[in-house]
Design goal:
The chain is of the alpha/beta class. The protein folds into two domains: 266 residues, Queuine tRNA-ribosyltransferase-like (TIM Barrel); 92 residues, no CATH class. Helix content is 41%, strand content 18%. The protein contains 14 helices and 15 strands. The strands form four sheets. The protein has an eight-stranded parallel β-sheet with strand order 3-13-12-11-10-9-5-4. A three-stranded antiparallel β-sheet has the order 6-7-8. Strands 1-2 form a two-stranded antiparallel sheet. Strand 11, helix 9 and strand 12 form a beta-alpha-beta unit. The termini are close together.
């Protein structure tokens, strides 16, 4: 498929959506996003339930009006927080999993807010967000769970997906939405390292029926290697008449590798997080024949702009980048801004990193 079609709009594929977890891509505004070529963002349901809350979002007609962003809106279900706030924290966990859903505690430790996030509540909140692509609440376990726990995670993910789909259909009917005016719903494929469980999970999700399927379970920055071959295999068995979503990915070279494998939709925190930590992307050579490249990583390198060696460099971050930053500012100036702890430094760095992602996506669209 060349286009993602939703709510009477079309978006070219592949598409990359930076994380706007709390209705903001940190350090930049909606006009910055549009100017660098970002077509969509990914917000987080659990965090938006907590603040600003459902009432505020409804008043603005959803998060698009709230943040004044005209592009595609994806809403993460809160499933990742099952990992980050429960599985990954051990004894310091900020919630627990129940039969009904997941209980989370947000805010300070003295007076935390309690949230019961059920599959139904997740979908209801995503309709309040008024997102274009909604994601089923899933059980996203850590990588070191036992085989028994992995199987339980898959069964829970399937059970929650059924409840999400029922609530989704209920909301579509009550809001009198047509097939072309309704949002899309993505089912998440869990199963860890097991191809058997992944295949079983996908098969059960297909019986329920979704607009697309996402590769779930691999957690960015968790210290675990990315399972490239497993992801390629899964893309190969996902139905070609549905959208294929690589949840939480990825690095620049990942976009190339996994688009070639068949994935079409991406979201990731890396370009904006790296920018805030002075890690900027350099395009080493012209972006041509990305899909056919034997080593996609050879197109890119990193510049740690706060290093002393950049203090006197009168050259852009990347001569092959056409962003506002590379056209107007030197490495030395960015180095100076970061040394001053100036907020402009993070804005310019974020604009640059996001533009590099947008340029890669644009070239992939030409080649696929």
């Amino acid at each position: 498929m060349k286009y993602l079609k939703v709510k009477n709009k079309k978006y070219l594929l592949p598409i990359f959506c930076p994380d706007a977890t709390r209705a903001v891509v940190r350090s930049v505004d909606a006009k910055d996003l549009v100017s660098v070529g970002i077509d969509g963002v990914c917000v987080n349901t659990l965090h938006l339930i907590s603040d600003p809350g459902e009432g505020v979002l409804k008043k603005f007609g959803g998060v698009r009006g709230f943040m004044d962003f005209p592009g595609l809106i994806i809403s993460d279900s809160g499933g990742f927080q099952v990992f980050s706030l429960i599985y990954a924290r051990g004894k310091k966990r900020r919630g627990k999993i129940t039969k009904d859903g997941a209980i989370f505690y947000t805010g300070g430790l003295k007076k935390p807010k309690k949230h019961l996030l059920t599959p139904e509540k997740s979908i209801q909140m995503q309709f309040a967000i008024s997102s274009d692509i909604m994601i089923c609440l899933d059980d996203c376990p850590s990588s070191n769970v036992s085989e028994k726990e992995n199987k339980a995670s898959v069964e829970r993910t399937i059970a929650w997906a059924k409840r999400c789909k029922l609530e989704f259909d209920k909301q579509v009917v009550s809001r009198r939405l047509s097939v072309v005016s309704r949002p899309l719903l993505i089912g998440v494929v869990q199963g860890g390292d097991s191809k058997k469980l992944r295949k079983y999970c996908l098969s059960e999700l297909q019986k329920i029926g979704f607009d697309g399927y996402g590769m779930g379970g691999w957690v960015p920055n968790a210290g675990n290697p990315l399972q490239v071959e497993l992801m390629k295999w899964l893309a190969g068995i996902m139905p070609d008449d549905s959208y294929k979503y690589a949840l939480g990915l990825g690095k620049l070279q990942d976009l190339i590798v996994f688009t070639k494998a068949g994935y079409q939709v991406y979201d990731c925190v890396l370009p904006t997080r790296d920018a805030r930590h002075q890690r900027l992307y350099e395009i080493k050579k012209p972006l041509k024949n990305l899909v056919g490249a034997k080593n996609p990583g050879s197109f890119f390198s990193y510049i740690y702009i706060n290093k002393q060696r950049h203090q006197k460099e009168n050259e852009p971050v990347s001569k092959y980048c056409d962003c506002l930053v590379c056209k107007n500012y030197s490495r030395a100036y960015l180095n100076h801004l970061f040394k001053l702890n100036e907020s402009l430094a993070m804005r310019l760095a974020t604009i640059h990193n996001l533009r590099v992602y947008a340029m890669v996506i644009k070239q992939l669209r030409r080649e696929i």
